[in-house]
Amino acid sequence: MQQQRSRVYVWEFPVRFTHWINLLCILALSITGFYIGNPFIQAYSAKQYIMGWIRFIHFVAAYAFLMSFLIRIYWGFMGNKYANWRAFNPFSAKKIRDLADITMFYLLLKKEPPPAVKKEGHTACAIYVYLGLFILFVIEILTGFALYSQSHYGVFWKLMGGWLLSVINVQNIRLYHHLIMWFLIAFAILHVYIGWFLDKTEKNGLMGSIFSGYKFVTGKELE
Amino acid sequence: MRAVENALGITIPDNARIIRNLITGIQYVQDHVIHFYHLHALDWVDVVSALKADPAKTSALAQSISDWDKSSTTYFKAIQDKLKAFVESGQLGIFANAYWGHPAYKLPPEANLMAVAHYLEALDWQKDVIRIHAVLGSKNPHAQTYLVGGMALPVDPNSQNALNVEGIALIIELANKAKTFVEKVYIPDLLAIASFYKDWAGYGAGVGNFLAYGVFEQDNVSNTTNLYFPRGIIKNKDLSKVYPVDQTKIAEYVTHSWYEYPEGDGKSKHPWEGVTKPNYTGPKPPYEFLETNQKYSWLKAPRYEDTAMEVGPLSRMLVAYASGHKRVKEVVDSVLKKLGVGPEALFSTLGRTAARGVETLVTAEMLLVWLGQLEQNIKRADLQIHNNEKWDPSTWPKEAKGYGFHEAPRGALGHWVRIVDGKIENYQCVVPSTWNGSPRDAKGQKGPYEVALIGTPVADPNKPVEILRTIHSFDPCMACAVHVVDTEGKEFTRIRIV
Amino acid sequence: MKIPDEKELGFMEKLAQKGISRRDFMKFCTMMAATLALPASFAPKIAEAIEKSKRPSLVWLEFQDCAGNTESFLRASKPTVVEIVLNLLSVDYHETIMAPAGKQAEKSLDDVVKNQKGKYITVVEGAIPTKDGGVYCCIGGRSAVDIVKEVCGNAMATIAVGACAWDGGWPAASPNPTGAKGVKDVVSGITLINLPGCPMNVQNLTGVVVHLLTFGALPATDELGRPLFAYGERIHDHCERRAHFDAGQYVRQWGDEGHRLGWCLYEMGCKGPETFQNCPTIRWNDATNWPVGSGHGCIGCASPRFWDTMTPFYRRLPKVPGFGVEATADKIGLGLAAVTAAGVVAHGIARAVKGKGPEQGEKKE
Ligand code: SF4
Ligand code: SF4
User: Is residue B448 a contact partner of residue B207, using CB atoms and an 8 Å limit?
Assistant: First the structure.
């Protein structure tokens, strides 16, 4: 079968930009967060300010992450159809069917790549995973601000997350905040691997696309 | 905690042992004094009668029994005025509705005034001396530095944030203050008051069996038998023999307690196998009386070799006395001599109260000795306060069981623990007040409170101050209601004791 | 500062009669102003309020408790208990320290409830068991629930002292066999303030009482019903070891060098970062010491349901429910990441074996 390959502009600049900001933030937040939870470096002098700086970086990165998160949401309304929030609507029979197909393929139970992976935007599987990711982000942000509000008094911080403290006890908030970090790390590993895997099997330039924005799609899938 | 240390075979560092001795020691001293003045004395001392006292005579009385410096006429006059102003305000607060003027009060007004003055002084004193707990245990009540394996209080003479010379100096100051007050106020008062109530050496004898786990380790081997106040049992008021304590012979009944055992309530259980399953069968509140032939208490009935035991300062002192403890023997004998009574007088309400005083004195004397041991260790640069070996639960055996013995101010306290997979499987405490206040067991044997009340004369059944004297002499630790049934007379007496 | 006028001096003389100098009294008032975080200029106002009022009645109820708060009360140093009992309040009912017992004691309580309806202060210590009709704690044959409803219901204000009276404390710790609850969950519609802690710090109790006498109202509280002057800020933010926390100097083992030098106890499970109370500022027992000061971390005793929520006391994070006791969040997280990585590697290998081409691969299952 003769397949026509074409180059499509899928990921617009804000999408790529927030993607890389997220990566940097999550890296920084995980490393500093891990230190805050378990300070593995011991200072040799009280004049040092290790925990102080680490927390500072954590908070700055947290703000950067929040901004990036907001930009991405904004782009969900302003961006192209691949970035649009409608693309993320989970309640679609087609997506669920596609998800099943793709999962079979990923688990190597199916040899032929299903047509569903040959999409120019996110695959159905990605949609669901990203929705889950989105929820994890929201929880991280809320629990983070809830913990932050313990030492920052006032209505603003109450609204940002402090209200959570009266719903769940602090220690559990801390626990979730910490556990989700590990989920995000696990996600990152999977994310990179699947990207590489699809890039290899589909030759769709997926790995490059997040730098350039262009994905290669086989012709018949072009709409 | 000791139970866990025992289960895991942890030996605590010597410093931790000394710090624990100090904390327990000052607790004895402070607690016993509070008990005497604030929880027990008003059973003997008539506050209102103190208004009638002559301050000059009071001063003479006070000076005749002790060289305590607060004993001038003006001092007692000021106290009396304070008391007067207080009574005149019409708001008697905690002193309202007591049994003032009751015929069982026998002290002359002067002795009453002196006791009231010392009641107030002791209130001030206790909050000071207990600061030793703050130095060593962070705060009182509820010291927070105890750890399985040692203490969380660092010791370092060269650090600002550890127990250093400053801290030690403060302890010395407070320990001296404690000792002086006991020597010059508490003991003289105790003797003076007791001399008016010698007939109480004939009442409130109790079960006659005494159990002491012993306290104040002299070396740091865990669950040591080398204790300053020794471990032992005295049976049937026989001071000529001290029996060893075998923890496997302790068991608890629930026959008359609001609990149930899976194998039926007629059998007793060792604490390692203990079960605490509530089963309330009493009347629905509000109620007036409880039936003693059924279940009637929230306390279990602990028994040693199936007999009821009394615990507390009297038990400790008797065991020490009978085992030939030099200092205890000296003090007990001198107290008996001053009161002009023989050792048999110890088995009574008065004996219990006196033993508490003896113990306070002997303990107060030891505080500085222990502190000296700590100083010696520091001098040898031994600063270890915690044994870290078994801190991480992953180092624990799959299953372990242990028990820990301690003597709380009120008496023998035992904890039994079973640990499975790093988790506590069963934890049972047999606390002093369950020994003393225990209800009847399957054989119907009564506990010490119940026995001690038999034969106590009550002048006015509506104002049973005599019953309070005996019950308070045990230093009960129950903030809830205690219902005592007077088994001799026909009438039931309902009292709240705290 | 206002110069005391004649009328006040009259009171002062009365005080002097009771053996308290004007200076001591003003010192006490100034100290109280400080505890309540009021400017020092308030001291005269406090003095005035205390002078004017007849000593208000106070009844102290005890239920499922260990008398720890009573003990704490007895440790009061500024003012001392003697001063409180003789000058500040009329403590009309307190099971542990009162002289009468039994029926006579109950009379004291009845007198207050009947004669001073709406004018007395109630202090509640201990949790209130509510299961099985409240049989787990009865006093004089009446259940605790009953007593609390009556006594607190008729009081001007109720002060719940200690963790137990606040939210059940340790009697309510899981599995809570007696259905223990705090005052706030047993009676509603009363004027209530809570002083959690195990036990409460007596200086905060005096603070509340003086505030009540001075301003005629209870101090402002947070959403958990705790006065802001005592529970408004975090231990961690006022801890003297905070500099070591920020620097990165932690105690790693009990008795190690850091422990002796007073480094931060964060790694030993200190719950200062999640606990709100004024321990580091007012300290305990006449400001002698406080837990972190002595070398042991805070265990969060003023936090809600602290026996359940603040444990394990010696770890930063709670255990993950559903895993063994040894499972920490990090072990589970690391496991998760490792499984993912292993999955990825396995996938890669499997694909390398199977995925040479559709023709070569064997179909499985
Ligand atoms: S010791 Fe506790 S309260 Fe103090 S700085 Fe460290 S973590 Fe915070
Ligand atoms: S430091 Fe923490 S645990 Fe200690 S008394 Fe204060 S709040 Fe309670």
Answer: yes
Same-domain status, C179 and C295: no
ipTM value of the model?
0.83
Q: How far is the CA of C271 from the centre of ligand 2 (A)?
A: 8
A neighbours by CB contacts (3+ pairs under 8 Å): C
Same domain, C83 and C223: yes
C-alpha C276 – ligand 2 centre gap (Å):
9
Instruction: Report CA-CA distances (Å) from B70 to B76, B121, B128, B187, B189.
Output: 9, 10, 17, 15, 14
Nearest CA-CA partner of B204 in B478, B408, B470: B470
Pocket of ligand 1 contains residue C269 by CB under 6 Å: no
Q: Which of C96, C107, C133 sits opposite B284 (nearest CB)?
A: C133
Task: Point out the residue among A37, A112, A182 whose CB comes nearest to the CB of C358.
Answer: A112
CATH classification at residue C194: 3.40.50.700
User: What was the pLDDT predicted at B180?
Assistant: 93
Residue-wise pLDDT for B133-143, tens only, equals 888 888 887 87
The strand pair at B301-304 and C128-129 is best described as unpaired
Q: Closest residue (by CA) to atom 6 of ligand 2? A: C279
Q: How many domains does chain A have?
A: 1
Band (B45; pLDDT cuts 50, 70, 90): confident
C100 CA to middle of ligand 2, Å? 34
- Domain coordinates of chain B in residue numbers? 2-242+310-433
Q: Which of C231, C260, C291 is the last residue of a domain?
A: C231
Domain that holds residue A55: 5-222
- Do C130 and C224 belong to one domain? yes
B187's CB contacts (< 8 A; 6+ apart) are: B357, B360, B361
Count Cβ atoms within 10 A of the Cβ of residue B331 and give its class: 0-12 exposed, 13-18 middle, 19 or more buried.
buried
pTM equals 0.81
Mean of per-residue pLDDT scores for chain C = 78
- Interface contact flag, C106 B120, Cβ < 8 Å: no
Count: domains in chain C? 2
**CATH architecture of the domain covering B2-242+310-433:** Orthogonal Bundle (1.10)
For residue B143, the ligand closest to its alpha carbon is: 2
Closest ligand 1 atom to C250 CA: 6
